[in-house]
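Following up on my earlier message about 5'-O-[(L-methionyl)-sulphamoyl]adenosine. Here are the inputs again, as you asked, copied directly from the submission form:
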Amino acid sequence: MYITTPIYYVTDAPHIGHAYTTVIGDALARFYRLAGQETWYLTGTDEHGLKVARAAAEAGLSPQELVDDISQRYVRVWESLRISNDDFIRTTEERHRIGAKAFLQALYDNGDVYLAPYEGLYCVSCEDYYKEEDLLEGGLCPIHHRPVEHFSEDNYFFRLSKYSERLLAHIEANPEFVYPSTRRNEVIGFINQGLDDLSISRAQLEWGIPIPWDESQVTYVWVEALMNYATAVGYGYDQAQFDRRWPPTHLVGKDILRFHAVIWPAMLMAAGLELPRRVAAHGWLLVGGEKMSKTSLNQIAPDDLLGTFGVDGLRYHLLRDLSFASDGSFSWEGMVERYNADLANDFGNLVNRILNMVEQYRDGTVPARTGAEPVDVGLKNAAGEAVEALAGFADLGFNDALLGVWRLFGAANAYVEETAPWKIAKDPEQGQRLDEVLNGLLEALRVGAILISPVMPEAAAKLWDQLALPGAPDEPPYTETAVFGTFPELTVNRGAPLFPRIEAE
Ligand code: MSP
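Thanks, got it. Here's what our run produced:
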């Protein structure tokens, strides 16, 4: 599995909208690794183009100084969010320049590029063209509400129009290609309106990759950026790596679906490459009803939340409270509520309670069960269902899958209440029964630690340590490791609570 995020513009510092896509990709990558599949997870930064050149000028920096600074902020924020990317591509890297030039040359050699006068309206914030009729009143960009600019110059064009039929045929034949289906219909509608050829170069810009056959022009930043998915895995310089990784699964926000589901596949067809497995477009994270953006001044940085909720708290919230296909609202209150209910109560308290009982009644060590079947089949079944629920990650159904995993914690909590170990512990004749109950509960925690590991890597590792288990919760394949059996005879060590309750202010 080769999974990608968009490469983020270095004009914006990272905010939780960017974190949303990257956390989704990370959960997916960790899930596939946990399932035992070879996985490659790519993210990076989009560093060329007019928007970046202007932002640098405004900040009194050279473009290189600006991109070096902001790209490092992305690297650091992904580290702090425990993102497990295997690579980080910067479009100012040499490998990208080499690969992009080879890709452009392939389009050219295929006869799909021609020179023609370009005249049109351009939004620099979008780095995208608009037709007059798509603008808001006063000639404003519909996304940024800023004036578009009139451009007129000779450009190279890519014969996008030539690929309409083939694109439609591919989308028809591969229902999974564009996900979810509402977005698929949107893409079909867009192609059916008729595709214009695409200007892929700029004559009056220097901050970009020169067109290989005409160095007086640089590549249009979107065309260059899309190629990162190929250049990062060796296109144009390491064919063996490319063959091993390709094709990708692209995760994108709905705002950039058209680039990924129309322009990019057409470019790949022209270059004779296999199309992505899937282009999955998620909804927006809204703050105060609007998409987070610099112009709306409603950006929230991940750092603003980590102190209160921790890495796992933030990751869990993004995956549990939003549904992939739709827009969702971020609110502090909602996040506190979810954290306290699911993490502090259902999960954290359960861990604490079980380990506490094991220490109190058994000095930290419970013997392994000798019989084949667990005493309580209900708990075993709940664990089996939770394992099945996790498979929903492959279909990007994170919230439902997590709900399914949390049913195991619900079942374990109910089991504690039903069996009331504090009562059994008083009866010396029920010593074996107490062992069996505690063993089942420890086993439920062991399975739980494995299942939460793609979303909450820190809590999973801490719980694993508290349970004194050898190895790590994320050792594949979970379909074998998470089978409910008997918990081995180990001396557990209860640590600090995993998710201390947050008191609402
Ligand atoms: N540089 C281009 C992408 C090139 S990919 C070949 C770009 N960059 S961006 O910095 O604007 O980031 C876009 C992506 O960030 C969106 O597609 C989405 O994945 C994510 N998000 C940015 N703000 C977001 C929200 N408010 N909500 C959800 N995702 C958001 O476009």
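One observation from looking it over: The mean pLDDT is 95. Hope that helps, and feel free to reply on this thread.
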